[in-house]
Specification:
The chain is α+β, with helices and mostly antiparallel strands. It has eight helices and four strands; from the N terminus they run βαβαββαααααα. A four-stranded mixed β-sheet has the order 2-1-3-4, with helices on one face. Strand 3 and strand 4 form a beta hairpin. Helix 1 runs parallel beside helix 3. It is globular. The mean pLDDT is 96. It binds glutathione (GSH).
Length: 216
């Protein structure tokens, strides 16, 4: 098999890559990593020293491809069925990358900070940092909402921007509710109904009990 994906079904950034793979109907060997297992961690570190997933392995060309956006870029240029994920028109392609970057930087990463804060040991909590991250997520929602052309980020074509949007909005909604952003809430609803996304959510379902913010 040409492709191997190192991932975990609960990992938000892995969802980005999984949505792309499912969307383009690309067969891959799923290599689920348990970072809490020392042997698994060491084996994964040997593949990618940061031991952060997703990581794609191209077994045909012997290349290791880290970073969710780069994985999607790599798939889009390697597999015809994935080429639309980057949009063929140069301006739309640039807009796809822009929305992808903005969502990751201003919604997804601040959300990760909120989760990291929840996992800190007692006495090490940082309420100011959490409030700042919430403010960034709110600003991110405000920035992104008018950019969603509808039904998908770029209009009629489902792209990398949508792969990025689903995990960021799905998870961030648990820390800063989308109730005050009806356009984004409706967009999230459309994303959740997309078959590739529904499949990712179904794969993650058995692991949701381990999600640190599951109780609000
Ligand atoms: N910029 C990276 C972020 C990857 C990332 O943060 N992955 C998280 C899971 S969502 C991870 O591997 N965390 C493991 C850890 O923090 O040790 C990407 O886009 O792939």
């Amino acid at each position: 098999m040409r492709w191997t994906l190192y991932y975990h079904p609960l990992s938000s950034f892995c969802w980005k890559a999984l949505i792309a793979l499912y969307e383009a109907d690309i067969a891959f060997e799923p290599r689920q990593i348990n970072l809490g297992d020392a042997a698994d961690h060491a084996a994964f570190e040997a593949v990618w020293p940061l031991a952060r997933f997703p990581v794609l392995r191209d077994n045909l060309l012997g290349r290791t491809v880290p970073e969710s956006s780069i994985i999607i870029e790599y798939l889009a240029r390697s597999e015809h069925s994935a080429s639309n994920l980057l949009a063929s028109d140069p301006d739309l392609s640039l807009q796809t990358r822009l929305i992808d970057r903005l969502i990751d930087a201003y919604i997804h990463l601040p959300f990760q900070q909120v989760v990291a804060e929840r996992l800190r040991p007692p006495g090490q909590h940082d309420a100011f940092g959490v409030a700042q991250a919430h403010g960034q997520i709110r600003a991110g929602y405000k920035l992104i909402a008018p950019m969603i052309a509808g039904p998908w980020a770029l209009g009629e074509t489902f792209t990398m921007a949508d792969c990025a949007a689903l995990p960021a909005l799905f998870y961030a909604d648990h820390s800063v509710s989308l109730a005050d952003s009806p356009e984004l809430a409706a967009y999230l609803g459309r994303l959740r109904a997309r078959p590739s996304v529904a499949r990712v959510l179904a794969d993650a379902e058995p692991f949701f009990q381990y999600f640190p913010l599951k109780d609000g």
